[in-house]
Amino acid sequence: MKKTLHRFTLSVNGQEHSCEVEARLLLSDFLRHELGLTGTHVGCEHGVCGACTILFDGQAVRSCLMFAVQARGHEITTVEGLAAHQDRLHPLQQAFWEAHGLQCGFCTPGILMTLIPFLAENPSPTEAEIREAISGNLCRCTGYQSIVEAVELAAERSEKS
Amino acid sequence: MKPAPFDYLKPATLEEALAIKAQLGEDAKVLAGGQSLIPTMNYRLVQPAALIDLNELSELDHIHVDGEGNLRIGAMTRQRRVEFDSTVKKVAPLLHETLPFVAHPQIRNRGTIGGSLVHADPASELPVIALATGVRCRAKSIHTERWIPAEDFFMGMFMTALQPEEILVEISLPAMLSRTGWSFMEVSRRKGDYAMMGVATMVSLDGEGRCAEGGLVYLNAGDGPVKAKRAADVLKGEKYSEALVEKSAWEASRKEIDPFGSVHASIDYQRHLAYVLTKRALERAFERAQASDI
Ligand SMILES: Cc1cc2nc3c(=O)[nH]c(=O)nc-3n(C[C@H](O)[C@H](O)[C@H](O)COP(=O)(O)OP(=O)(O)OC[C@H]3O[C@@H](n4cnc5c(N)ncnc54)[C@H](O)[C@@H]3O)c2cc1C
Ligand code: FES
Ligand code: FES
């Protein structure tokens, strides 16, 4: 089989990129190795851990279960695109920081990207709903309790503002 | 953990996709949501020579009710879209109730109705629903078109009746009979994981409240979705009673299903789950049928 390169443009965190990739390149590897956006983590490469979760046209998806070529013409948001400024965290990130929603931080980008559309659809979730929302994201450190508290804190604040 | 090289083909129309399939047959795999295919490619368990990406074919992404009252869903319709569709909720409440059990939201955002059916995993929810509701699958090749009833579509573990040159284009789900109740229940270790046992049931009542039609279909209970025919026969002509659903649950869980057991659940435990779930699901279905006014 001949090695064919595919040329196309896509938008990542609001920036247009033109690229040239092999079809078999996973979107997760494209983001990390071609664009240097290493905030998207890779844990299992079979859809189970959720560390690679990104937004694809605004919806949370596994970037390890897509090929980069499939992103042609689509909009991608990674964890690097959350904070509006380098020195100011996104309110959800701020809540994670304050409520100790992370320890090693490996799972955090995937959990944040899962929660962004979830909180947009459901701004004041119950604890059970939060736990279900992150059921597709594995965390080996926190035991989830502090993650749930961080989400509750973020939801509470957005209600007030 | 990286896929082997393949040719990436992205047809602009279904016609074009079918022409490629006719030419390449088994060597070319259809790429739907990729939520089962890409993990197996990452593991190099499958190494297709070519992928035919159907993701931009909007003609395969639709939900509507046809002139005869059947619910038609395009093969490429995302599971998450079906989950929140108000028509589906109204005319196919069993499908609506079941979708949240299919993996996690992130997977359902990509995963398609067609992909789940063609993957034909005995542990999957949607093949069970297809069998329980009497779905028909519309398969097309470049020169042929046929409707395959769910009963004939699933041919065993990860096997369907589709021919190498065929693509599943849509499914048709018949309107429910009047006075019908339904229920889907499963038990998994963690929400969104494949379940250790699960059952879908539909119960239709006659004017006197006796069961006219009943159906019970199980996941993870054999090498495909397993229909418990004798357990359903137990219900026929009978009114609801605790003893009745116990008898039916016993028949299904002890005699009709054939679970394999796994590290998560022994065969005995799977049978136990099937017994308890069947009782509860039947109770719920009878309740709903009795409350239904259509
Ligand atoms: C972490 C995780 C958890 C999961 N948990 C569950 C679960 O609990 N329950 C469950 O049911 N599933 C589960 N799944 C699987 C998921 O539901 C998949 O979406 C589904 O099985 C496949 O759909 P797809 O559209 O992604 O198909 P793909 O992965 O793209 O395709 C699957 C197979 O079907 C073929 N195919 C697809 N569409 C067509 C078509 N129209 N015509 C002909 N051939 C076609 C492909 O060539 C391939 O062989 C899980 C997946 C992951 C990664
Ligand atoms: S790396 Fe994608 S889900 Fe684990
Ligand atoms: S903080 Fe370490 S894996 Fe979640």
| Major sheet: arrangement of strands of chain A | 2-1-5-3-4
Helix/strand-derived category of chain B reads alpha+beta
Radius of gyration of chain A: 16 Å
Q: Looking across the biggest beta sheet of chain B, what order are the strands in?
A: 4-5-10-6-7
CATH homology group of the largest domain in chain A? Beta-grasp domain
Round the mean pLDDT of chain B to the nearest integer and report it. 97
Give me the CATH architecture of the largest domain in chain B, please: 2-Layer Sandwich
Number of domains of chain A: 2
What's the shape of chain A? globular
CATH topology of the largest domain in chain A: Ubiquitin-like (UB roll)
Cα-based radius of gyration of chain B, to the nearest Å: 19 Å
The major pleated sheet of chain B works out as:
5 strands, antiparallel
Low-confidence stretches of chain A: none
CATH architecture of the largest domain in chain A: Roll
Q: List SSEs of chain A in N-to-C order.
A: EEHEEEHHHH
Beta-strand portion of chain A reads 15-25%
Hey, roughly how much beta strand do the residues of chain B contain? 15-25%
Number of helices of chain A: 5
General shape of chain B: globular
How many distinct beta strands of chain A?
Answer: 5
